[in-house]
């Protein structure tokens, strides 16, 4: 990250806000002011990071180059208007699920420069992926700044169609939860088969970590890596016949993503 970045204002230092902050920190960020009323947020303070409890505590004259909106979508109407005053030169980067560019601009001023982005929690270790769309008032320089901030926590892809952000939210935004659920289910299955708890946990975790590392290091795609595990007539083939039955993972996963996509659309206004 360049060391000429303007100051940043992070509104909401919860799970995702703090993950972004950790990613920026690791990369070497410019100064960040965090607004968050939660007592837990005070722990985010450190070199170049100041935490205040409300917008009223922002020092007079503070002029952030970017305001990152990381509060719950349900808090937006209450929280956002206090930041409309920064709209003169700051780019607003919303990571709120569902909230559209128009809905955000309605809370900040119709001419506000708004980027809608969907990161995920691996941002905390700079392994995230963010998909973003820029609103019509975002200048090229503001888009470059947003790109630099979001790319500091992992991969970034920009899209032209805002409608894509709903399935993106369902797939990569929430995706880490599905992977962690798999770890939980593998651990439980190990316990059910009589394995000692510590071993069941270690196997589940390291299998996910090692598989992700193999996928990252390999030129082969996921299907080829799956086939490489699956000996004809062997044990994995039996398990996959259960998991890949039409009414099992393929149907269930498609339904789950559809449900999350619809929820993102419901949160739009
Ligand atoms: N978690 C995830 O994996 C992802 C989340 N997102 C999006 O990120 C946003 C934040 O989610 P997440 O981090 O999970 O939620 P959290 O509840 O962990 O974080 C939100 C934080 O905002 C604080 N807060 C509440 N009101 C205000 C306010 N008026 N001003 C400033 N801060 C306030 C909350 O404090 P308190 O707890 O005291 O209310 C909390 O610390 C959401 O919009 C979500 O859709 C996007 C991608 C992934
Ligand atoms: O569950 C949510 O609504 C947010 C958006 C993606 C991940 N967490």
UniProtKB/TrEMBL annotation:
Signal peptide: none annotated. Its main location: cytoplasm. The keyword Cytoplasm applies. It comes from the Bacteria. Residues 162-267 form the Pyrroline-5-carboxylate reductase dimerisation domain. Keywords: Amino-acid biosynthesis, Cytoplasm, NADP, Oxidoreductase, Proline biosynthesis. Pathway: Amino-acid biosynthesis; L-proline biosynthesis; L-proline from L-glutamate 5-semialdehyde: step 1/1. The keyword Disulfide bond does not apply. It is an enzyme of class 1 (oxidoreductase). Gene3D superfamilies: NAD(P)-binding Rossmann-like Domain, ProC C-terminal domain-like. Its EC number is 1.5.1.2. InterPro entries: 6-PGluconate_DH-like_C_sf, NAD(P)-bd_dom_sf, P5C_Rdtase_cat_N, P5CR_dimer, Pyrroline-COOH_reductase. It catalyses: L-proline + NADP(+) = (S)-1-pyrroline-5-carboxylate + NADPH + 2 H(+); L-proline + NAD(+) = (S)-1-pyrroline-5-carboxylate + NADH + 2 H(+). Residues 10-98 form the Pyrroline-5-carboxylate reductase catalytic N-terminal domain. It is found in: Cytoplasm. Belongs to the pyrroline-5-carboxylate reductase family. Catalyzes the reduction of 1-pyrroline-5-carboxylate (PCA) to L-proline. PANTHER family: PYRROLINE-5-CARBOXYLATE REDUCTASE, PYRROLINE-5-CARBOXYLATE REDUCTASE 3. This is Pyrroline-5-carboxylate reductase. It comes from Acidocella aquatica. The gene is proC.
